[in-house]
Amino acid sequence: MLERNFDKLFTSVSLARKNTIHYSKNLLHLPKIDSMKLFCNIPLLDKEDIRKDYKLFLAKGRIEKDLDITYTSGSTGVPIKYIRSRRETIDLGMSLAMERKKWINANLPYTIAHFFKTVRPITYKYSKRQKSSMILSLYDHTPERLNLFISALSEFKPTILQGYSSTLYEIAKYIKDNNVKLPEIKLIENRSEHLSEKQRNFIENTFDTKVSNMYGMAEHYPIAYSCRLGNMHICEGNAFVEIISSNTNNPVGDGETGEIVITSLISETMPLIRYKTGDIGKISTNNCECGDTRAILELSYGRTNNYIKTPHGNINSSVIRRLFRYMYDDELNWINQSQIIQEDYYTFKVNLVPNKWPLNNVNVIERKVEEIVKSSLPYNVKIKIEWVSKLEKNPVSKKVSEFISKC
C-alpha cells in the first residue's frame, strides 16, 4: 500500500472519531491513530452493529433526505441500511470506471445494463434526458421474460452488461439455445458471486466478449477488480484490506487465509472502519505478470456464517469446494453448476445442473461427486444427488449460494 494511502487511512479514522457517535465512544480509550500497530487496536465492526442503530454511524450534520441511501442484499440476514453522500457515490463510481477502462476503450459516459432486485421487469435511468442505464429484474426469469430482456438489450445497446454469474450464465444459455444475435457488448462484468472458469468461457463465447470480475459490497465498491490474467487486484486508493483469523479476530500472517476486513478510504458520511465482510480470502504474496503492482486478493468464495455443522464442532464450507475445481475434469465436464446443501449433521444433498440432457454417464459422474464430497469431510456422511435445471437462490439476495446449511 502506498504511503499516501496510509495517510488517507489514518485521516479516515480521525474523521470518524470526530464526527460519529459510535467511533467517538469506541475509540475514546485509544490515542491518535498514526501507526498500523495502533490501528489494529481499533475494535472490529460487525454488520449487526450497523443493523442495531445505523444513526450511530452517521456523521454529524448529515440529513438523510439529501443523501444516497442503499440497502445490502441481505444474504447474511436482514438487509442493512447504508448512507453515503452524492460526492462519495461519484468517487466510488469513478474508481469503478477506472477499473473498467483497463478492459474497454470507452470514454465516460457509457451505457450499462445491470440486473437488480426490482419488481418491474425493466427500468431506465436518465442523464440529460438520455437513457444512461437499464435495470433488469432478478425475479421470475421465465422464457417470456428472458425474451423481453433480449429485445431490450438489442434496442438499448449497452456498453457493459453487469450481473451475478448465475444470471449472466442463465441469459447466455438462453441466447445460445435460441440462436439470438445481439449488438456488441464490450464487457460483461460479474459481481458478488463466484464465477467458475466454465461459466466464464461459456459467457465469453456466447457474447463474443470478455468477462471481468468485481468484488465489492453495497456498502463499498469496488474492493478488488480483476485484471486480464484473472487476478483480483485490491483497489488500494479507496479501500484498505486486512485478513483476520475467524477464531481470534487477530490479523493472520502473510499469505494466510481468513476473514476479509475492509476500511473505506472514501466514506465519511457513514464511515466503515475495520468492517467484517463475512467473506473468506487471503492476500497473495505473489506478483502479477500483468504489471499491476497492487496486492492480489484471492477469494475462497466461502462465508464465515456458511459453516458445516459437525458432531464435533463447525468447519468452514470451503473444505468441500474442491468439487467446483473438479468440475473441469474430463469425468465431470458434463456438469455446468453444482450446489451443496447440508440437511443435517450426516446428510448432504448435491444439486447438479447438467450441460445437456440426457447424459450417458450419470452413474460415473454421481460416483465421482460422492467420492469428492465424502473425501473432503473428516467423518462419514450420506450423499444425495439431484439433477436440476437451476440452482436454489437466496430468497432475499437473489444470489446463488454454492453451499447452504439447513442445520
Automatic annotation (TrEMBL):
Domain AMP-dependent synthetase/ligase as annotated: residue spans: 69-263
Classification via InterPro entries: AMP-dep_synth/lig_dom (IPR000873), ANL_N_sf (IPR042099), CapK_Type1_Caps_Biosynth (IPR053158)
Gene3D superfamilies found in the cross-reference section: N-terminal domain of ligase-like
Domain of life of the source: Bacteria
Pfam families listed in its UniProt record: AMP-binding
Protein name per the record: AMP-dependent synthetase/ligase domain-containing protein
